Amino acid sequence: MADLTADISAFEKEQDELEREHMGEWVLFRDEKLVGVYDSFKAAAREAVAKYGRGPYLIRQVGVYSITLPASVMYRPVHG
To answer: From its phi and psi, is residue 37 left (phi > 0), alpha (psi between -120 and 50) or beta?
Structure first.
């Protein structure tokens, strides 16, 4: 499983500002940088997959308690 520790730390450093500016929206972090802010998980995931393939990258909803998903859970976009 990919190590997202650095991206989680980057998110936590920006969390207060993100909560002031983007509460409830979705953010994408990669290589300790905020890549973008999105209205939905689906939009963030599409951007992440288009730019980085299978990852690793961090997608979080601003202002929502984080959850841990099992490694077997992946986003698989439906094409067609």
So the answer is: beta
Residue labelled with tokens 């308690």: 65
Residue with tokens 């067609």: 80
Q: For residues 11 and 29, is the Cβ–Cβ distance under 8 A?
A: yes
Neighbours of 40 (CB within 10 A): 11
Q: How many CA atoms lie within 13 A of 44 on its CB side?
A: 20
**pLDDT per position as a tens digit, 9-58:** 999 999 999 999 999 999 999 999 999 999 999 999 999 999 999 889 99
Annotated domain spans of the chain: 5-61
Amino acid at 57: Y
